[in-house]
Structure formats: C-alpha cells, structure tokens
Design goal:
12 strands, globular, 18 helices, alpha+beta, single chain, 5-stranded mixed β-sheet, 358 residues
C-alpha cells in the first residue's frame, strides 16, 4: 500500500468533498488533554495521542471500515500507525494507493483552516495551554494566511480584485518571499510595532533569497517592487523613530547592514478590506501610468529618472500620507546607514557577522 499526503490542489478538492461531512461532525469534542507545553511545536506532538474517531464524533469504532468522506470510491478507517499515532486511512478499492492523514491534517481540510490557525484552534479545543502565547501564533497565522492568499491569487484575487491582480501578478513571488522572511525571523513581542512583528532586510538580501529559489531579480528591481507593495498597503515600512531600539542596534552592529541599505517592515493581514484598498490604489496607479517597477527606491532617484513632475504625479495619485509612508523613511535610512559604515570590532575568534538576515 502506497500512502501519500495530499498536495495543495488535492487539499482544496478534499475540503470541498468534506463540506457535507463537516456539517455532521462533532464541533465540540468530548476529548480534552488538559496539558501544558512551552511551544506550539510541542503541542503538535500531543495531537498524535488524540483518537480521531472520538475527536470528530464518528459513528465507527477504531479500525472499523467506513465510506470515505474524501474519495467516495475509497474505504476509510481510523487506526494507529507503526509509531502509535492516530491516523485516518483512505484506501482505494484495489488497496494499491490511498491517503494517510493525521488529526492536524484532518482539521485543516475539514474546517478549511491554514496550518498555524489549525494548531491554535486545536490547542483551544483540546485545552492545551501553551506558554509561547497567543501573540506569536497570531503572527504566524497572519503570515501563513497571506502566503496562502498569494498562492491562490489565480483563483481568488483575479476575480475579486482584478485591478490589483493585473497590477501585481507578475511580482507576487516577491511579496510571498517577504511574508516567508517575516515568518522565518519571528522572535518575540519585543520585536513588534503596534502589535505587529517587525523584521528587517535589504533589497540585496531579498534578491539573493529569490535567486536561491530560482527567481533571479536584481536588487534595484526588488527595491522598486517593495516600494510598490508599500504604496499598495501590502507591506508597511516602519519609521526609524518607531523601530525597537535593540533591533536598530542589531542592524548598526552588522557589517552587512553597513554595506547595504536596510528597511524595517511589518506585514498587514491580506483580508478583504486591505485587498479592496490595494485594488483601489492599483487602479489609480495604473491610470496614472505608474507600474510596479516605477516606484523607485527613493525620492531623489525618482526625480533623477523621471523628473520632478513624475514625483508630483506619484504623490498626487498616492496621496500625501501614503506617499510619505513609502518615501519618508528613506532619508532617515540613508543617514542611519552613514552611522553604520564603521562596523564594531569584535573579539578575536568571534563570528564576522551577526546571525541575522539582511
């Protein structure tokens, strides 16, 4: 028997197939664990001890066959695997192939939730207290949901927000990478502004990360694309005065930061209101003849390439508040960089660079 985990496209099909079953299952499981863990990753290990039959209130016993809710022609059962974890097994009629899903897998497709949101909700339902806290999970959910929104843009954004989709579709891979970097560099609430996690990166670093993934994009082009996403409200630049002091210190002490310009970012949730506003701005930018690679790295560059009239047009289209949010930090950032040109000497044997992303 060859079991496989469903890919994203298959999971969408599975979620639709489970829609009717979803109405029948027990949304308030009788099974609880009353446990405590330090992190959500440790909580995932506890999920393996939960009987899927009991959790979903299925009218079958452990190991008993039932009609599969995912593939109608399959036969399903819930049993333990060789490691003792409860699994949902879906077998084809000839028993040559099938699906094998854990409780976490099942929760994602049954309730149509993302990975982190499913972990968060399962902890609540199973009464698992996590010391890591709600804030960190809320940030993870936002980043993960944003990435899912980006990956499903061809199916959703194209029709719901057509102006935005046409404006950014060729550059969504950059926005996805920024969300991935934010998720990867998530630390603690100390590294946040107004409750949102802050991370920092240079356009050079983002360009290098994209190249690793097979998307070769120059640093200068990345800088323009990031500014465009900031203009649309899908990224937010953090003003120097609002940057947590220890994060500024971290950047100042890095030799790499002294070589390349660094911006600090937060990422908003790509919900209906944010996307609707971005759609409105994209339409205005397009009508003004501005593209994703027109919004250059700083005001002086825009003036040099396109003239003062172009700057005035950009400010008029975006509005003073939005325009300032894209360009206001640039001068501060340039002055900030000047203070970074001489890196702090480190003790002999110390690492050349701090272990942080730029």
């Amino acid at each position: 028997m060859i079991y496989k985990y469903p890919d994203r496209a298959e999971r969408i099909i599975i979620a639709k197939a489970l829609r009717d079953w979803n109405k029948l299952i027990n949304r308030s499981p009788s099974v609880t664990l009353n446990a405590q863990t330090k992190t959500y990753i440790q909580a995932v290990e506890l999920f393996k001890k939960v009987n899927i039959v009991e959790f979903f209130g299925l009218s079958v016993g452990l190991g008993e066959n039932m009609k599969c809710a995912i593939v109608k022609s399959n036969i399903a059962s819930v049993n333990r695997d060789e490691h003792g974890e409860y699994r949902y097994f879906s077998n084809s009629a000839d028993r040559k192939s099938g699906y094998c899903l854990s409780l976490l897998d099942m929760y994602q497709v049954v309730y149509n939730c993302g990975y982190y949101k499913s972990i968060y909700e399962l902890c609540k339902k199973l009464e698992i207290k996590v010391k890591e806290g709600d804030w960190a999970m809320e940030q993870k959910i936002r980043y993960a949901d944003n990435i899912a929104t980006i990956e499903q843009a061809d199916d959703e954004m194209r029709y719901r927000h057509p102006s935005l989709y046409k404006f950014i579709c060729k550059h969504l891979y950059v926005l996805e990478k920024m969300n991935a970097l934010g998720l990867r560099n998530l630390a603690s609430k100390k590294e946040s502004v107004n409750g949102s996690a802050v991370f920092f990166a240079s356009s050079r670093f983002v360009s290098e990360e994209l190249e690793k993934a097979g998307d070769k994009t120059s640093a200068s082009t990345v800088a323009k694309i990031l500014n465009a996403f900031a203009a649309l409200g899908l990224l937010k630049k953090v003003a120097k005065k609002d940057i947590p002091g220890h994060m500024r210190h971290k950047a100042i002490q890095s030799t790499v930061a002294g070589m390349f310009e660094v911006n600090f970012y937060t990422v908003p949730e790509m919900g209906a209101a944010v996307l609707a506003e971005a759609d409105r701005r994209a339409d205005k930018l397009k009508r003004a003849g501005i593209t994703m690679t027109t919004v250059s790295a700083d005001k002086e560059v825009v003036e040099g390439l396109f003239g003062i009239e172009e700057v005035a047009k950009l400010e008029k289209v975006l509005g003073k508040r939005v325009y300032a949010s894209v360009f206001a930090d640039t001068q501060q950032k340039t002055d900030f960089n000047k203070s970074m040109r001489t890196p702090k000497k480190k003790a002999a044997g110390a690492e050349q660079f701090d272990d942080y992303n730029f």
